[in-house]
Amino acid sequence: MQVIDLEIPGLKLIELNCFRDERGFFIERFNEAKFAEMGLPRKFVQDNHSLSQPGVLRGMHYQFNQPQGKLVSVIRGRVFDVAVDLRPSSETFGEHFSVELSAENNKLLWIPGGFAHGFCVLGSEPAEVLYKVDQLYNPRGEGGIVWNDTDLNISWPIRKPILSPKDKVQPSFMAYKKSALVKGDWHMPALQL
Known about the structure:
Elements: E1 2-5, E2 12-15, E3 18-21, E4 24-27, H1 32-37, E5 46-52, E6 57-63, E7 70-76, E8 78-85, E9 96-102, E10 107-111, E11 115-122, E12 127-133, E13 142-144, H2 165-168, H3 173-178
Antiparallel strand pairs: 1-2, 2-10, 3-4, 5-12, 6-11, 6-13, 7-10, 7-12, 8-9, 8-11
């Protein structure tokens, strides 16, 4: 297992060791002692599993009341995964990082609380995404930013994604910046649409 500190502080890319032979493969996805040794979180309170069809884009979502850190991985298919720094006091506020996660490349992305997260499915196969999170989901503490925000300028590899009704009408990053959230208090109410 290798851990790479990314250019946006707090984000980490984890490359897992995969042991393959004629029977198949074995991967250790989580080891508390190794995570501690490498400075990764070890306390997770919920595991989530999503299936998304080709062309689906989910995001950009965040949780401000009980900000969630997420350990994201893909066990089937491929996704273009994106994290946006929403921490007002961060030097990288408003910057994003993207990476392809797939069942083949054995990479995990650690996204701490204070980031928006989203992904789109690549290719013609559905994608299954696993998330380990360090805080329980709080529906009253969720927010979002529109996926194709011009200020964020994310180079999505998809032009006409399949979106949920909610993701079609998320507010802009500019609206987020103007909201009370940028005062650094992640426990304030989210933008109302």
